[in-house]
Structures are given as C-alpha cells and as structure tokens.
Amino acid sequence: MKNFWSYKKEYQSLRKNILKSIDRTLKSENLFFGNELKKFEKEFNRLNKSKFGLAVGSGTEALYIALKTFNIGFGDEVITVSNSAIPTVSAINSTGAKASFVDINENYLMNPEKIIKKINKRTKAIIPVHLYGHACDMNKICSIAKKYNLRVIEDCAQAQGALYKGKFVGSFGDAGCFSFYPTKILGAYGDGGFITVKSKKICEKMKRIRFYGAEQNNKNNKYIGKYYSNEPGINSRIDEVQLSILNIKIKKVKTNIKKRLKIANFYNNELRNTSLKLPAVKKNNKHVFHLYTVYHKKRDAIIKKLKKKKIKLNIYYPYPIHQMKGYKKNFNSFKDKLPVTEKLSKGIFSLPLYPEIEKRDLIKIIKNLKKTLNTL
Ligand SMILES: Cc1ncc(COP(=O)(O)O)c(C=O)c1O
C-alpha cells in the first residue's frame, strides 16, 4: 500500500454510473446552475437536516462567503484554532479580517474556556473547527457567542455527518461550511463545498455572493438580472459535471460513515494496549473519523520506521498556523502562546482510514505499528 488514501477502488465500483451521468450532463448543454445543482442542494439539505443551503466552489469559499455575508472584513477579528487546515485562516484573511487563535483541549478541539479572554470590540465571529470528524463543544461556544453578540460559523469540512448531542454539525451556528475535497466524507473528483443556513434570506444573499453579487434567476426583470450586481461577490460556482458525480456519491455517505466507524473500531481494539494515545470520543457525540489521529512522543521515529515497510502515515497538521511565515502577521497577538496546540502538533499522526481500505492493509499497518512501538 503505497498511498495514504486512494479512490481507485471506489471509482471502479461507480465508474459506469459516473460516466453515464457525465455524458447525460454534457449532452444537456447546461454546464452551470442546472438540474444537477437543484437536485444536489435538495439532497444535501435533506441528509444534513438543514433548512436551507447552497453548493459552492470549495470549502474555503464556503467560509469566505459566510464571513462576507455577515459583513466581516477589514478591522474585524475572528476567533478560531491554530491546529486546523490552513484554509480556515486563509478564508478569514481573504476578507481582510484577522484570525485570533484560542488553544485547544487534549481532544484537538477548540477549548471554550479560552474564548472570552480573546473577545474585544473588534471580535465579530467564532469559527469552531470540527477537526478529524469530531464535534466541538457547541453548547458552550454558542452560549458565549450569544452573550457577546458574535456570529458562529462552523467549519464542518472534516465532519459531515458528525453529531453533537444528537444533532448534526452545521446546525448550531449561523452557518455550517462543508468541503467536497476528494478525501472528505463526501468527496468530489475535484473541488466543491456547501453552506448550510437557517434563514432563506441569508441563503439568498449567499447565492448572490456566489455569483458576483448578481441574481441568478431574476425572472421579474429581464434587464436587471444576471448582469446586474446588488452587492460585491465572487465566482464560486460548482459545475454540473462535478455535481452529477456528487449526486451519485451522496447516496453512499451513510454507508461510508458506517464503514469508517468499523475501521476506527478495529484500530481502537487492536491498539488499545499500546503506548499510543488513541482518539477519545466525547459522550453523546458521533465521531465520523474523517481522520484517525493518534499521539506519540516519538512520532517521527514511528513514521520513519513504517515508511521503510512502505506504510505511509500522514500528519494533520505538522505546523500550527500561527507559527507559519505566511500567516504570522495575521495572528493578532504574537506574545500569546498556544501550549496545547504546540505540544500536540509535535506528536500527532494519522493512520490510513477510508471506506475501501483493504483488510489486509489494515492488518499490515497494525502488525508493523505494534512491532515498532515495542522497539522504541
Ligand atoms: C478543516 C478544514 N477547513 C477548510 C477546508 C477547506 O476546504 P477546501 O479544500 O474544499 O477549500 C478544509 C479542507 O481542506 C479543511 O480540512
């Protein structure tokens, strides 16, 4: 197994259907804003029990559009975590706002106890990140946001289908932002994203921002329609061909999550009595295991040894964002330290986990990992 992740087997099983629907879509001569979009938005909302929502070009753009919708920009600060994927922060910075980082708990998620200290008159929103597929403590985060009149934009890029106290992530805040990057719970064969919201009016505004600030379907006025912008926007279209693939793959989401949980369980059982710190699932939560992340002080030695056995282990993420050259200037307080974030970044690594992974590969990973741990 030379790869950490592969879609080869999945594609083999869906190939006929996918090729048929790409062909149908191309023959329809409708490349954007057609039936595939309508069908997908309806189905994604149904699956995630969301009232309204829109498909966009990527998860990064989903976050950007959500921030712009709530008029967040220059001079504003957005509270988030530094152990996330870079795009959480690049989306904030693209609006002109600055990220203000709070530390995480030992479970890799935003520590709500650290939020209040970071709030000042420039603070406009909180972006909790449901990292690896595990939901943040949304009750505490939302009650702080309510008290200080802040928006909550959930970064659900890694956590589609995850539950917090029985409710889907993306349904707690003002907006839930999802990614269809190929490795995600629902992955496209290209880029894509989604925003779930509670209000039709907000959804309509987001749809305008997705399309240069213009109305897509202004049937009332044939002049002020497509070519008239009501507000500044971007291009965050997702094309019908990609959506026709997503419309096939979305049917597999529930089964794929079940398969992920089964693999995570297998890892849990096999690695229970080792020196690894295994992922802990909080009570009343459903973790969807986009990533199976463990911690060990001797991480680098483990990765090196397994590489020799042709087993690839990845780190999500090796560098906290506040320590990256490109984003340091946007960290609102250089003097602040994020001790838990910094400590965990030095020992975390993830084991291969995707629905189609072969049992024999899992056995090979476990065998070599245990052997390596015994020699450390
Ligand atoms: C936590 C997190 N936020 C945001 C994103 C951005 O999504 P995309 O790659 O679709 O722009 C990703 C995915 O890479 C992610 O993992």
Shape: globular
Q: Bound compounds, please? A: pyridoxal-5'-phosphate
List segments where confidence is low: pLDDT < 50 over at least 5 consecutive residues: none
* Helix-strand category: alpha/beta
**How would a textbook summarize the main sheet?**
7 strands, mixed
Cα-atom radius of gyration = 21 Å
Q: Residue share in helices?
A: 25-40%
N-end to C-end Cα span: 24 Å
Order of helices and strands: HHEHEHEEHEEEEEHHHEEHHHEH
Average predicted confidence as pLDDT: 94
Number of strands: 12
> What strand line-up does the widest sheet have?
1-9-8-5-4-2-3
Quote the beta fraction. 5-15%
What does this structure look like?
- The chain is α/β, with parallel strands linked by helices and 376 residues long.
- Helix content is 38%, strand content 13%.
- It is built from twelve helices and twelve strands.
- The strands form three sheets. The protein has a seven-stranded mixed beta sheet with strand order 1-9-8-5-4-2-3, with helices on both faces. The chain has a three-stranded antiparallel beta sheet with strand order 7-6-10, with no helix packed on it. Strands 11-12 form a two-stranded antiparallel sheet.
- Helix 4 links the parallel strand 2 (77-81) and strand 3 (98-102).
- The protein is globular, with a radius of gyration of 21 Å.
- The chain starts with 7 loop residues before the first helix and ends with a helix.
- The model has no long low-confidence stretch (mean pLDDT 94).
- The site of pyridoxal-5'-phosphate has 15 residues, from helix 3 and helix 4.
